[in-house]
Design a protein that fits this description.
The complex is a heterodimer of chains A (174) and B (541). Chain A has one domain. Helices cover 75% and strands 0% of the residues of chain A. Chain A is built from 8 helices and no strands. In chain A, helix 4 packs antiparallel against helix 5, helix 5 crosses helix 8 and helix 7 runs antiparallel to helix 8. Chain A is elongated and about 75 Å long. In chain B, 46% of the residues lie in helices and 5% in strands. Chain B is built from 23 helices and 7 strands. Chain B folds into 2 domains: 175 residues, Fumarate Reductase Iron-sulfur Protein, Chain B, domain 2; 311 residues, no CATH class. Chain B is globular and about 80 Å long. Chain B is mainly alpha-helical and 541 residues long. In chain B, the strands form 2 sheets. Chain B has a 4-stranded parallel sheet. A 3-stranded parallel sheet of chain B has the order 5-6-7, sandwiched between helices. At the A-B interface, helix 3, helix 4 and helix 8 of A face helix 5, helix 20 and helix 21 of B.
């Protein structure tokens, strides 16, 4: 028996617990709302987080290595948390919650089958995910500053263009 | 909706009064960068005679308030409770059912409980109870009452400028409590002691002195429009010739100044110019009534009334018969719900009748002002426009209902009718996120500054999420709307949440499809970008 099989068996429970842990990072009065199933458009934060965690967990159990899949799931969650009331650590820290959940859920099985090496491998995958998440977090934060700068530029773009006061650099934008 | 307790939970009710000292009422607000706008500069307040002009910063401890600030606020609250029956009702009748809680785009996007409309209203309700109800006076915090302190005042400022007055919550409130009105009054009270934002106070002062938010002087307005006229000529071969401040014109055209200045608003403005030229409308622009929008509406009713006055005054001076208004959001809430009461009756104007189709706009009987979406939809319905929707075939379009035009005046069908006639690919967003349930852009009611970008991205997330759904499902790449603030802020919102979706006004799409008499072969759209399939024609020229 391999750890992936155990993870696959307990997928629903693990993803749900990981989701609950992630929701615990929000204020108490908000958690009920985030835990209530709803249409995507009515509760987009919770729905986005849930489906992204689901996707990330699949990546772990299937040992997927394609960066695009991981990146897009991570991006969906981190993009939200990067503009909410979180410090950088809190914004990406939810990923480590998966380690706690897996250890708790598989403790007996791991002990019984001596799966420590396999567990370490899974945990290394989670660590890599966390590192990638921090890159995405930084991209989102930088994007916020870009947005501010671009808005100011766009207000005056037309006037400056008509007044021949703009010089375009090929490949570099304005 | 609030969670309904199960029977076993109900049996465990604790009858002891709640602990005090750690609830939301006792938690002072933390000012977080990216979540609030800069405080207003003194000169903007001086220019319109607003109280307490001074340099101040919201994140500093001392807000430099007048000594008697508390009396001013409480007197102001008393005055408004007596003046507005609706406000008094809203203070009394909320049963905290929670139906509004998860309907606010700021709460959905931020997860901050104080963004629940019920709690945002409670910020002011708790003070109302303390000073104006016997229960609150006697039982204090057990009756949900609290003192008006410096911290409470700061909390008001922080959260009343985290509400876009979109009224989505009121659609779901069983009592019809209008949080927008509570926010308006909250902001009005704050303005009594000079607590405003620079982003709102600046446009108010500009508008008061020069007629528009951007402070464009007459020559700048004319030259901006001339730039657009040059572009129209390049695209169509036709030179449109609008008139300015022309006495005796049949119709006065008023639009938000955002359409005159920033992209993509300017493309919408080119659409107005082309359409009104093509149908030969006898109309004029005004360089004085050069703003349909009204940022005064985000400070006080009195200021909004002062800024609105110029529209009727200019219509009277020019001797027009009626007024046609461009695509804007809050402009139309003001026109539809307040203008007639504030500055009417406009008995010197006539009930609007389209000179092209003969349609009487009975809905505008009192205001004498017609929305251009209604006007254009009527032209199309009567077959007065020659349209080639295939020119918009490179676009897969969805429509964002602006809060003010949808919930504030019921314009739901007209823009969709227009878009379906000028585009072949139109896809509506989900029912929960469109029409009267539309989600706000997250930057309305004067929150479209740059320094509060995180706030805007949080508030705009539910809207962006619904756009993302139609993008993934149908490949939507254009978000149309009928609001100048939307055109200014949605490109930024899309850039963060749904890259690859552009933003346009509805009349930009009309302009692309409009077949004008004597026009040259169209190879470019309003953005001077080559139309698909016309790449060779461009090279030939």
């Amino acid at each position: 028996m391999h750890i992936e099989e155990l993870l696959r068996e307990k997928k629903r429970v693990i993803v749900q617990k990981w989701f609950d842990l992630t929701i615990e990072t929000y204020p108490e009065a908000t958690r009920n709302f985030l835990k209530t199933p709803a249409e995507q458009s009515a509760n987009p934060v919770a729905e986005t987080i849930y489906s992204a965690l689901h996707g990330l967990f699949n990546v772990i159990i299937n040992k997927e290595t394609t960066e695009t899949g991981v990146g897009s799931y991570l991006d969906n969650v981190i993009r939200i948390r990067a503009i909410q009331d979180f410090t950088p650590t809190q914004a990406v820290g939810f990923i480590f919650g998966l380690k706690d959940v897996i250890r708790e859920e598989l403790r007996n099985n791991i002990r019984r089958h001596g799966m420590y090496e396999e567990l370490m491998e899974v945990e290394s995958g989670i660590d890599r995910m966390a590192a990638a998440a921090f890159d995405i977090y930084m991209q989102c934060r930088e994007k916020i500053y870009d947005l501010r700068a671009n808005e100011v530029r766009n207000w005056t773009y037309r006037i400056l263009k008509h007044s021949n006061m703009l010089r375009e650099h090929e490949g570099e934008g304005i | 909706m609030a969670k309904l307790p199960k029977p076993e939970e109900l049996s465990k009710i604790d009858y002891k009064p709640p602990r005090t000292g750690c609830g939301w009422r006792e938690t002072p607000v933390q000012f977080k960068e990216g979540m609030y706008c800069f405080g207003s500069r003194p000169r903007y307040l001086e220019e319109v005679g607003f109280p307490n002009p001074r340099e101040w910063k919201p994140n500093e401890e001392d807000w430099k308030l007048p000594e008697n600030w508390k009396d001013i606020i409480l007197d102001g609250l008393k005055e408004r409770l007596e003046k507005y029956r609706s406000f008094r009702l809203f203070m009394d009748i909320c049963v905290r059912c929670g139906a509004c809680a998860d309907k606010c785009h700021f709460f959905i996007g931020s997860g901050d409980p104080k963004n629940m409309p019920v709690l945002r209203a409670e910020l002011i309700r708790s003070v109302y109870r303390k000073y104006f109800t016997p229960g609150g006076k006697i039982f204090g915090q057990w009756a949900g009452a609290r003192e008006l302190t410096y911290d409470v005042l700061k909390e008001w400022w922080y959260y009343f400028y985290q509400c876009t007055e979109c009224r989505r919550c009121s659609v779901f409130c069983p009592y019809g409590i209008d949080q927008a009105e509570i926010t308006m009054i909250g902001r009005e009270l704050l303005n009594l002691i000079g607590c405003n934002t620079d982003w709102i106070a600046g446009p108010v002062a500009n508008c008061y002195r020069k007629g528009n938010h951007l402070g464009l002087e007459p020559h700048a307005i004319v030259s901006n429009l001339e730039y657009m006229i040059d572009d129209i000529e390049e695209i169509t071969g036709i030179r449109v010739e609008p008139s300015f401040n022309r006495k005796g014109a049949e119709i006065l055209f008023v639009t938000p100044s955002g359409d005159l200045f920033g992209d993509p608003g300017t493309y919408t403005c080119m659409g107005y110019l082309m359409l009104l030229h093509e149908i030969g409308l006898d109309y004029t622009w005004s360089t004085y009534a050069s703003e349909g929008g009204n940022f005064g509406f985000f400070t006080s009713m009195e200021m909004a009334k002062r800024l609105n006055y110029k529209i009727y005054a200019e219509a009277k001076r020019l001797g027009v018969k009626w007024i046609l208004g461009g695509e804007c959001g809050h402009m139309w809430r003001v026109v539809h719900q307040f203008m007639d009461t504030w500055n009417g009756p406009a008995d010197f104007l006539e009930e609007p009748v389209s000179p092209v189709t003969g349609t009487k706009f009975e809905n505008a009987k009192t205001t004498k002002m017609v929305h251009i979406a209604e006007f254009t939809a009527d032209l199309i319905k009567n077959g007065k426009l020659k349209l080639d929707p295939s020119r918009n075939d490179h676009l897969k379009v969805t429509f964002h209902d602006s809060c003010n035009t949808s919930r504030g005046m019921g314009i739901l069908e007209e823009p969709r009718y227009i878009i379906k006639h000028v585009c072949n690919n139109f896809y509506d967003m989900s029912k929960n996120a469109s029409r009267e349930k539309t989600f706000c852009c997250g930057s309305g009611s004067g929150l479209n500054a740059g320094e509060n970008m995180e706030l805007r991205m949080r508030g705009g997330f539910p809207r962006a999420n619904a756009v993302k759904e139609v993008k993934e499902q149908y490949g939507v790449n254009m978000l149309a709307n009928i609001c100048a603030i939307d055109r200014a802020v949605l490109p930024t919102l899309m850039d963060y949440w749904v890259p690859g979706v552009n933003v346009c006004g509805t009349h930009e799409l009309v302009a692309n499809a409009l077949v004008m008499k004597g026009e040259k072969k169209r190879t470019m759209d309003m953005r001077l970008e080559t139309l698909p399939g016309m790449e060779d024609s461009e090279e030939e020229e």
